[in-house]
Design a protein that fits this description.
By secondary structure, the chain is mainly alpha-helical. It has 6 helices and 2 strands; from the N terminus they run αββααααα.
């Protein structure tokens, strides 16, 4: 039976579930992987993502709703710090369309891969 070290397993997890990195003019911001978030933050993120699904309804009820602010609230959960989140939002010029692309890219990268068929 093959042997594997814990270090090998951790390295594989880092490759597969590492952070979503956004390159900024002044460096980078690493958004934490969904699977690597503490459970409370993961629940917060998933609840906020559900709110985004209902954004059209929310905008009907609250026409003054700032979509950029809502997206920033969501992305702040996965940013490593308030300062890093603020750098990201400033670099995006608080533009809702740009922030939505960051969020969608993050969510796509955060999806666990599909199981590979066995070779039996």
């Amino acid at each position: 039976m093959p042997k594997v070290t814990l270090a090998d397993i951790k390295a594989a997890a880092d490759r597969k579930y590492g952070p979503f990195v956004v390159e900024l003019p002044d460096g980078e911001v690493q958004l934490q992987s969904l699977l690597r978030l503490p459970s409370k933050k993961r629940k917060d993120l998933l609840a906020k993502a559900d709110e985004l699904k209902n954004m059209a309804e929310m905008m009907k009820d609250q026409p003054d709703l700032d979509l950029a602010e809502v997206l920033e609230d969501v992305l702040r959960v996965v940013a490593p710090s308030k300062a890093a989140a603020d750098r990201l939002f400033k670099a995006c010029d608080h533009d809702a369309a740009v922030l939505m692309e960051v969020f969608l890219g993050y969510m796509e990268a955060a999806q666990p891969g599909e199981a590979q068929p066995s070779e039996s």
